[in-house]
Specification:
Heat Shock Protein 90; 27% strand; alpha+beta; globular; 5 strands
Length: 146
């Protein structure tokens, strides 16, 4: 007897975890990112991705309103990873323009902008998700093979 199966799309692969809205949750978020990248063979993104998720979690810890945040790690396609943090604040992040000033807050979004291929905010009725995407470029793919 021959059995024929038809593959069905199951959606984009992803990892997510609800964490306390506090700076120390960045360690758990970094573990989640490393796990996802290793599972997807995208280890070349690890250094930049862990810095980006740390900044996203730090921002949510400061600006969120409830006791928890949601960390998301998805793969929109084979060569890209999207890192996101959902919180209950509707206030969108704004990168600092005055980096020479004495104010130390607000520099995280500048770092996210520098390390990611693109980033943005998805507004919800009750809050938002701030996300950043990193792509395996030719240099990173070569490093992965090497």
């Amino acid at each position: 007897m021959t059995v024929t199966t038809t593959p069905r799309p199951t959606g984009h692969p992803g990892y997510s975890e609800t964490m306390p809205r506090e700076p120390r949750s960045a360690a758990g978020a970094r573990r989640l990112v490393r796990t996802a990248l290793a599972a997807w063979g995208m280890e070349a993104l690890t250094e930049d991705a862990t810095l980006v998720i740390t900044e996203l979690v730090s921002n949510a810890a400061v600006h969120g309103r409830l006791a928890s945040i949601r960390v998301l790690v998805t793969r929109p396609d084979d060569g890209r990873v999207r890192l996101g943090v959902v919180d209950r604040s509707r206030r969108a992040p704004v990168p600092r323009r005055d980096l020479d000033g004495e104010e130390t807050r607000g520099r995280g979004m500048v770092l996210i902008d520098a390390l990611s291929d693109r980033w943005g905010t998805e507004a919800y009725r009750w809050g938002k998700q701030v996300w950043a995407e990193l792509a395996l470029d030719a240099d990173r793919r070569e490093h992965r093979r090497g």
